Amino acid sequence: MAGKPRREDRRTRYTKQVIKQAFFELLHERGFGKTSVAEVCKRAEINRGTFYLHYEDKYALLEEVVDEAIDAEPMLDGTTPVSMCQRVPVNEDYRLLYTDRELYPFVARRVVARGEAEGVSSIMERTGLSERDAQTLFAFTANGNLAVNQALGWRRGQEFLQAQALIRDFIAAGYEGVRHG
User: Fold this and answer.
1) Are 131 and 124 in contact (CB under 8 A)?
2) Per residue of the chain (181 residues), what is the pLDDT tens digit?
């Protein structure tokens, strides 16, 4: 049955959850740079071998929790090529990933990477631009949208919704201008 992802058993899900809980506790207390695999294992009450059965290193663990944070909240507006950037964290642990100065560049790169293929394709379709030019516009709009969200503290509210509407309209007008320009 090649090609079909294997479903995790209950013990694996539990172990990974314990690891993630310990990881978030340490992120809140110490930050990512000062958190080691050994400390995660001690806090989770597991041995290092168990950790390494599930994750290559703390960066692989970080990537998984960032992906979970991205997937936990639906997109606000699926009609723009940067819709991926409109997601806001649903809980304080995920919000920490987005607001921590050390982690934010990693999170931003991951958000952009996860939305790039669809976003670039959408821009090319809407504008007729080359793939390279569409990549440039995608990078610009995605990172700009993330910067606005960062400035608003990653909290959904009226100000966030107004900012997203403004960004959506700006992007749409920009794509029209590029297509006809």
Assistant:
1) yes
2) 455 556 778 999 999 999 999 999 999 999 999 999 999 999 999 999 999 999 999 999 999 999 988 888 766 655 555 555 666 677 888 888 888 889 889 988 998 888 899 889 989 998 999 999 999 999 998 888 888 888 888 777 899 889 888 988 888 888 888 875 5
User: What own/partner pairs with CB < 8 Å and gap ≥ 24 does 166-174 have?
Assistant: 167/80, 167/82, 167/141, 168/77, 168/79, 168/80, 171/80, 171/81, 171/82, 171/141, 172/80, 174/137, 174/141
Pick from 111, 132, 127: nearest CA to 181: 127
Q: What is the C-alpha to C-alpha distance for residues 83 and 79, in angstroms, rounded to an integer?
A: 7
Q: What one-character DSSP code corresponds to residue 74? A: -
Please tell me whether the overall predicted TM-score, pTM, comes out greater than 0.85 for this model: no
Question: What backbone torsions phi and psi does residue 74 show, to the nearest 5 degrees?
Answer: -65, 155
* Tokens of residue 179, six digits: 């297509």
DSSP 83: G
**Cα dihedral: 160, 163, 168, 170 (round 10):** -170
Residue 64 burial class via C-beta count within 10 angstroms: exposed 0-12, middle 13-18, buried 19 and up: middle
